[in-house]
Amino acid sequence: MQRVRGRIWVGTILLVAASTCLATSVAPAAPGVRPAEPTVRRVADRLHPFTGSVMKDHCFPDSPAAVNCGSTLPANVEDREPALTAPEPLFNPGPRYAAETRRFQGIPGIERAPGGRQWAVWYAGGLDEGTEGPGNYVVLVSSGDGGKSWSGPRLVIDPPGAVRAYDPCLWIDPSGKLWLFWAQCYSAGDTLIWDGRAGVWAMVNEQPDRADGKWSAPRRLCDGVMMNKPTVLSSGEWLLPAAIWRTRPSELIPEALRVKNPRPYGSGVQVSRDQGKSWNFLGRADAPQTAFDEHMVVQRRDGSLWMLIRTSYGIGESVSTDGGRTWSPGRPSGIPHVNARFFIRRLKSGRLLLVTHRPPDSKTRSHLTAFVSEDDGKSWRGGLLLDERTGVSYPDGFEAPDGRITVIYDRNRRSDREILTASFTEADVLAGGGSLVRAVVSRPTEAVPAP
């Protein structure tokens, strides 16, 4: 299944992105406490402000209805760049965000807290959003029993109006804090999902082994889209992969809201030298025929940085020998794969783990397979088939202290709407089988009719 935003591919250059990320943090608010004002109002049915189509149960700042939407955004927020306004986290999201209401869900991420609690995240569309569009929201769940069972939504990020939340990511930093990242931007309707800028947002939980650990307030880090884990370098610097897509902003978005900034598109990296307090642009790579980038970075044993990038032909690559400031011209990596996200990470053994698609026809999103490399990606060994079915995609993962690896992925985002995991060991990968265990994180039990 191809990601639907590929339908709006345009091979032209878009000038984007501010040169520096926002470094100022926002003081956290007590969970469940909402300021008395200002608020936005909600209407049950309203025309989309850009397309004229009906949108349901969304907050709009200029509605004549007097129903409190429970948002802290001021009433004139759409005149003040709503995509740049922090959304209010929903810690008690209620039945509106239950699994059975989702017509779409996928693009997951996963992490393990130091004490063992697991967290999973993905984005979804409710009754009014069956694909990628302005109704997208981020869902966070957790498991206290090693992934055998999972909670309902513990946190939802659902910006109001025509702003979508998407491409979330989870990461445990070196101090044991859990980071939740996501992107948000204007959307002009289904598949019209790029405003030329987007933006990476984050919240941090300093007690991730507690189901009720406190989260910081949302903070915007930089322009772009980031959906893969940061990398910690031997220098102590943190690198965050954030891309500016080549895609032209939708012309259905009002011209005043289409962003034209001075930085060109590409697979960018942001750097933090103060443990995430601030992030600044460091450099970028550009590979031929990129498709939403979805890049990941690993540091090789010789100190160089190896970036792998999603492309229309599979996986491109670029190398930096100066800590990420400059990158070699992108080129095909030679790693077999399809046009989809992959997963690569350094394991505690020193080997690299790579999860890719290896379908018989070299095109279909199926046959999700794990490999390991002992020579920093020059060659790959093993081949553990995690899931051979059509429609599986977008792996992310973690390694537990005992060496067991867990990979999360989705399956058929609009029909089965499954979020699944596969857990295994390095020995399983090398042997092509062994202790592989599959589990379900989320599987809606009822079909959701189209509105």
CATH architecture verdict = 6 Propeller
What is the CA-atom radius of gyration, in angstroms?
A: 21 Å
Order of helices and strands: EEEEEEEEEEEEEEEEEEEEEEEEEHE
Please report which band the strand proportion falls in: under 5%, 5-15%, 15-25%, 25-35%, 35-45% or over 45%. Answer: 35-45%
Structural class comes to: mainly beta
What level of helicity do the residues show? under 10%
Widest sheet: strand order? 3-4-5-6
Number of helices: 1
Q: Strand tally, please?
A: 26
**Low-pLDDT residue intervals, each spanning 5 or more residues:** 1-79
Distance between the termini: 23 Å
The top-level CATH class is Mainly Beta
Overall pLDDT: 83
Largest sheet: 4 strands, antiparallel
Feature tags:
451 residues; mainly beta; Neuraminidase; four-stranded antiparallel β-sheet; 26 strands; globular; disordered N terminus
